[in-house]
Amino acid sequence: MRLLTAAVATLTLALGAQFANAAPIEIKFSHVVAENTPKGKMATRFKELVEQRLPGKVSVSVFPNSQLFGDDKVLEAMLLGDVQMAAPSLSKFQKYTPALQIFDLPFLFKDMASVDRFQQSPEGQGLLDSLRKKGYVGLGYLHNGMKQMSANSPLRVPADAAGKKFRIQTSDVLQAQFEAIDAVPLKKPFSEVFTLMQTKAIDGSENPWSNIYSKKFHEVQSYITETNHGVLDYMIVTSAEFWNGLDDDVRAEVKKSLDEAVAYGNQIAAEQAAADRQAVIDSGRTEVIEITDEERQKWVDAMKPVWSKFSDQIGEDLIQAALKANEG
Ligand code: SIN
Q1: What pTM does this model have?
Q2: Angle at CA 215, nearest 5°, toward 200 and 115?
Q3: Which residue, of 72, 146, 169, 253, has the greatest Cβ tally within 10 A?
Q4: 32 CB under 6 A from ligand 1?
Q5: What is the pLDDT of residues 130-147, one digit of tens each?
């Protein structure tokens, strides 16, 4: 009997030690932008919150600047378990959910408040679930901001862009948007944009202020036109296999931490856009062009026909829901 008691005690101790020493669950969070952007700061905050709340149970490693994966590979890698979280731009999901192309329609959203209202609407929240059948879970949206056009010659009206090569994300809507102004769109990874600009392999691009400033695009583009013609936001995703494999209590804490980090990221996105816009102007390395209402209308007239080309894939109801979000 004494032998049995000793054996049980040894086993209990061994199991206890094993549990105490169990390696924490590792969340690799991969993204392509710099750390001093809304996405970079959100990811860092997420790591801090998770590790504070689940000490020794979950650890988060953040890989910024395409260090681990570019956006072309990250979603495949996620299904293989090589990365657990990412927040690609919404423009990079078209092959998984054509309806997400809505976010690329030029001049659809009036401003970032409208984008936010649409994302929080039942239709916007429904899109987070649209990746489930492909094995992903959409955990939330994160803002970056409205896009501006940059080039090495001044762009005031669409005709100024004709014949020029623009780097775009992997989106057919963005391709159609540039074709609508007789420009030449080239789908290229974000990590290559600076060099493409520097070597003049491209003439221009479209980016929100935080990406322009953090990646120094303003140092290799002579002009930035404040067009606010579209949005660049993100979806935070994980794989269903990873997410469903977490214990309920762990999953709830991870989600709570993510929601708080996203709220923080969304809160600073507008401030960051304004600060980075000013920093670009103050650098004196580029000229920021503010267009008149009349000039802006020319961009709208040239690009808006793109909507009808994609309305079947996206769904007219969804487009109407986005327009409704513009009303406040
Ligand atoms: C990003 O903001 O994540 C990069 C977007 C891009 O590829 O232009």
Answers
A1: 0.93
A2: 110
A3: 169
A4: yes
A5: 999 999 999 999 999 999
